[in-house]
Amino acid sequence: MPHRTLLVSALACGASLAPSPALAQRAAYAALDELPSEPIGLSLDVSLGARYQRVLSVGRIGDVQNIGELALRTRVLLGARVAYAAGLDASIGGAEAGMSYSANAFVAGVAVRYGDASAVALSGGVGASAVGAAVPIALMVPAELRWTQSAGPLRLALWMQWSWAFANELRRHGSSTLSFVDEAEVGLSVRAGRQQRYWRGYSGGAGPALGVSYRESMGARVLGLSLCFDLAGAR
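and the corresponding structure tokens:
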């Protein structure tokens, strides 16, 4: 008799644990918005600060020797590993020849992401720039190769830019190092501030950044120094 009671209890317990047909049917027809989803990969870099440029050799730009500007740089990567790359550079300021300004929109590119918001990206776009009457305005087509790397308490950014000028012959053939481009620039920026890891693969970091650049334009050689506030976030 005790054995019969034990068997009945075991069968009842098993029946209660077995999924019912109604539950099975509901699971089979679950809506898409009820299923867990992974967020789209995203990386964002923003830099805002001041930049000073010293003309080392004037070339064809006349009496300009000093250029001071406020500058903004943004870069966006969409994708987890292989990503779409885009960005915007803009600056405004002044020099001996008058107002200086520039804007470059990087509208299409590709990047390979790795680590904590680190990436190698190649992108291109369209822009315009001028420095008073010394550097007349021209339509520019820039291309950029950029490498960003988180390194302990620092974050590094190394870039190379090449530009081709249209609708202004004075801006053509301005690079003495690379004869096939009209303007060329190489730069390095170092941010003080660790890129911190958060939940579900998110990372973020911010801090002051010091940068140096070298540019060739209209036969002139220009050395640039920048002090910015940089922030970066990724998932």
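(Above: one complete record from the training split.) Residues 2-17 form the longest helix (16 residues).
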